[in-house]
Amino acid sequence: MDEGIFQAYEDEIQALEEEIRLLTEKYEDMQQESNFFSDEEILKSINSFQRETQGETKGHESPSDLKAQLESLEADLLFLTEFTGFHFTSHSQKTVEKTQNGTVQKHKLSGKCHSLPFQLEFQLLEMQNNEKVSAVVSDLSIVMESTEDSNVSKFLSRTEECGDILTFFRSLSTYAEWYEHRRHTFLHFK
C-alpha cells in the first residue's frame, strides 16, 4: 500500500485518540463536580425544583405576560449596558473544590467596556460562617488589548496583585469613556 494512505490513517487515529482524551477529561470533570454534592444536597435541590415547577404549573402565566416580562428585562439590560458601557460577551464558571467550609470556583469573563475589550480570569473562594457569606478573589489575571499607556499597565498589575475586581470595573469604566472621547477628538482633527 501507499505510504500516504498509511499516514492518513495514522493522522485519523491520532485525531480520534485526542478526541477520546478530551472527552475523558470532560467526563472526569463532570464526575468530580457531581461528587462535590452530598445525597442530602441533591435531594434538597430535587424537592426545591419540584416545588417550583408545581407552583409554575398552578400559576399558568400567559405567553403575553412572559413576553412582556422578557421585553422588560431586555430593556433593563439595554439601559444598564448604555449606562455603564459594559457589554459582557462570555462567562464560564467551574467548581474547583467544594468543602463544608466553602467553595472554590474558577471564573472566566470577557467583554467590552465602550470600545475596549477585556478578559478576566480569577478564582473565587466563598465561605459561609453563621449565615454570613464572604468571598475572596485570588489568582486574578486581566488581559486588555491596546494598553499602550504605561499607567494602564501599572494599574492592571496593581489590580491583579490586590485582587480588587470592583476597583478594576470602576476604573475601566471611567478610563474607557474618556478613551472614547479622546479617540473621537483626534479623529475630528485628522
Distance, first to last CA:
66 Å
- Total number of β-strand segments? 4
Summarize the main sheet.
Answer: 4 strands, antiparallel
Number of individual domains? 2
H-E string: HHHEEEEHH
Radius of gyration: 24 Å
Query: Which of globular, elongated, flat, extended, rod-shaped describes the shape?
Result: extended
The structural class is alpha+beta
Beta-strand share of residues: 25-35%
Mean pLDDT: 81
Q: How would you describe this structure to a colleague?
A:
The protein has two domains: 1-53; 85-189, no CATH class. It is 60% helix and 27% strand. It has helices at 3-35, 39-59, 63-84, 150-162, 165-189, and strands at 86-98, 102-113, 116-129, 132-144. A hairpin with a 2-residue loop joins strand 2 and strand 3. It holds the Pfam family CENP-P. One of its GO terms (biological process) is CENP-A containing chromatin assembly. It comes from Vidua chalybeata (Village indigobird). Residues 6-40 form a coiled coil.
